[in-house]
Amino acid sequence: MTVRVRGLRRAYADGRHVLTGLDLDVGAGELVAVVGRSGCGKTTLLRALAGLDRDAHADELVRPDRVAVVFQEPRLLPWERTWRTVLLADEPVRRADRPRAVAALARVGLADRADQRAGTLSGGQAQRVALARALARDPDLLLLDEPFAALDALTRREAHALLREVRAQRPVATVLVTHDVDEASALADRVLVLRDGRLDRGVRPGPGAAEALLTALGVVRPAAHAAAGALAAQ
Ligand SMILES: Nc1ncnc2c1ncn2[C@@H]1O[C@H](COP(=O)(O)OP(=O)(O)OP(=O)(O)O)[C@@H](O)[C@H]1O
């Protein structure tokens, strides 16, 4: 197991308990998607998994040292050459490391943009660079916080295909947080629902999974009832 979390809790200063004893396992090379309504604590969970939140507490939290995060916004430095933004985690960025950056850009199909200013990339390209930056760290755990939410529908589909390709080259344990049940069912090995501070239900991707997830999230649509059979214990 690459990630094993037991009893993860996080309360904010206003007394709001966002994570209330959450358990999560992610196997080597597995992609687990976490879906939930806006404000349910998805980003809070990812920040805790990334080790970015000192006020999150768990009875047990096992995860690898090399963790990379991709956020909803690409967070590039617009005035920098693209290859340099790929290496932002290494301070200082050294010209000798350029080949490593270009290799990471090649994995997302953007090697030819290495010397372009990051601020002149399209939204979809910028998000691919953000993925390249995460991959350049050769992570053992990849955390994706709604990385495709700001992309238009076509670019998002391309990004999904790219993520599949990248993971086929080297399957890295991945947690994808999203509010998009179709995206979750299309990409994940397992989809978990975050509700009331815990991951309480697992859904197997496949026909009817998206409808089953909507039902689990309390979004009732007439067709959803037929899909209830796709629900399974985590
Ligand atoms: N620093 C903070 N201080 C106080 N409350 C916070 C803080 N960060 C988040 N929250 C609250 O915790 C809850 C969970 O926030 P979080 O960003 O984790 O949700 P989310 O599921 O990622 O939401 P969305 O899908 O809208 O991005 C929200 O009610 C939010 O207002």
Automatic annotation (TrEMBL):
Pfam families: ABC_tran. GO terms for molecular function: ATP binding; ATP hydrolysis activity. The keyword ATP-binding applies. PROSITE patterns: ABC_TRANSPORTER_1 (PS00211), ABC_TRANSPORTER_2 (PS50893). The keyword Transport applies. Keywords: ATP-binding, Nucleotide-binding, Transport. It comes from the Bacteria. Residues 3-221 form the ABC transporter domain. PANTHER family: ALIPHATIC SULFONATES IMPORT ATP-BINDING PROTEIN SSUB, TAURINE IMPORT ATP-BINDING PROTEIN-RELATED. This is ABC transporter domain-containing protein. It comes from Cellulomonas uda.
